[in-house]
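[User] I wish I could look at a protein chain and see how it folds. I have put the entry right below:
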Amino acid sequence: MVELFEDNVKLFNRHSTKGNQLKWEKDGIWYKADYTGYEGLSEYIISQLLRKSTLERDEFVIYEPEQMKYKRRIFNGAKSGNFLYDDWQIVTLQRLYKTRYNRDFMEDTWHIPETKDRLKFVVEQVEQIAGLKDFGIYMSKLLTIDAFFLNEDRHMHNIAVLMNGEGKIKLCPFFDQGAGLLSDMSLDYPIGEDTVVMMEEVNAKTICSSFEEALDAAEQLYGYNLKFSFEKKDVTKLINNVDIYSDEEKERVKTIIFQQMRRYQYLF
């Protein structure tokens, strides 16, 4: 357990439809407190399973579960190393687009009728504004992660690039997986309900409401860019290593991942 204080608090204006978690930074480590359920468990499991994928190590942020004492309360959550250095900062796609056109990126994207055209629009705009290449491959990987792990809170406010003080822009590692794996127990997915039924109720937010439709569009446009290599025993071992979450929470996470392994066998 780590004790945190007011001077460790970090405030961000990145909008989330799932609420805003308390966040701190201390000695180069970032901490996030759970807000709606077991976000920290979700961050941990997803990032650790991404180790067993075709992603390079610098393409995603690794999280570990942690308990945090702040004032008089103890929070469950996750910690991660700080991937920002020198004068680099996170710039969301919403901010990037708003700065260039003074328009809402999400709104302009969703005015386009077809899912595939929406994704193409997003990719082309970011490549044009930021001068990046192969952003379609980046989005393909991101949409694969979100579809598999059911991250329902991925939108233009939490897809980002990195920018330094000279205006140079590069790809941002994949982060912010806390809304995956039905982590919101407070409202949308209470413990005790049928996990498989609730999995069918989860909606995506990036370019359409269907994870499978978004992933299909990405694969048609930009190909297959991510494969997994973990097995059920790897998932079980990871979950059993965590002792700050309940057995019910951990069992639900395991059920979700096993279901997704059957659904997306071609990704293995």
Remarks:
- Residues 89-267 form a domain with the Phosphatidylinositol 3-kinase Catalytic Subunit; Chain A, Domain 5 fold (CATH 1.10.1070.20).
- The radius of gyration is 18 Å.
- The chain has two domains: 2-81, 89-267.
